[in-house]
Write the structure tokens for this entry.
Amino acid sequence: MSVVPRSGEQKVTAPAILARKFPAQDGSFRSTAKITCLTAYDHPSARLVDEAGVDVILVGDSLGMAVLGYDSTLPVTIEDVLHHLRAVRRGTKRALLVADMPYGSYHVSIEESLRNAVRLVKEGGAEAVKVEGGERRIELIARLVEAEIPVMGHVGLTPQSFNSMGGFHVQGKSADASRQVERDARAAEAAGAFAVVLESIPRELAARVTERLRIPTIGIGAGPDCDGQILVFHDLLGLTSGHVPKFARRYADLAGVISQAVTCYCEDVRVGAFPSDAESYHSSSSIRGEATKQTAG
Ligand code: KIV
């Protein structure tokens, strides 16, 4: 019997995502069906994404760049994430709801990190949290899991390390660097993460890590061999301006659609074509008659 929840049916949970991966006879690990993940930052987009049957919705700290206009994720605060998370929570029924821990919310002490993660669950309705980093996060991930908070790891290119990495670069390209990515992914798994995001690493490395890990890998810029894929909502819909990485396939040009609609609206207002009589409210005939009499008198 399949444990994969079908679109629109069973609630997706962290254990259900973990259960999609199983050991194969050759010693590698395989998944039953690809895991679909997408970010969302507000109520209408969460509702649309959830109703379309996406398995995991991430309120990513990418909200800093996608909707708050920052040029990195670093300024995003726990209050920012909570604000957007609550809206997404109200629009999400079936998908597993994961909240990103923003930069600074888990970098000072384990106690403070735990408090922040608990806030995301208690005040924002998150069902899991995501933290960036592998070997450096072993203790943190283990403590979060101990506190009953499912954790999604995130290794490879970790955008919160923008300053220490010297920019947004593909990771794991040399032999040493690829070993580090694999150690990081294994560390997240060993600490108790139920899944791990692999961001911007060579396809071959992602395939190897995916085969060796018993937890699902979720790729973004990591090729097609991961157990699942994640994209930023605004990239997928063509709402992002400026540089878009080559892996961010654009499934629609909503920027063009919106721009055209707004231009038409402005034109209609200017020429008096909006609103029409049918789009206007009207007084009752008795009031209209009264007003005519008063004007005449
Ligand atoms: O913040 C985010 O949206 C992310 C995903 C792109 C993995 O971390």
In short: Confidence is low (pLDDT under 50) at residues 1-8. The chain has twelve helices and ten strands. Residues 257-296 form one domain. Residues 36 and 55 are 5 Å apart (CA to CA).
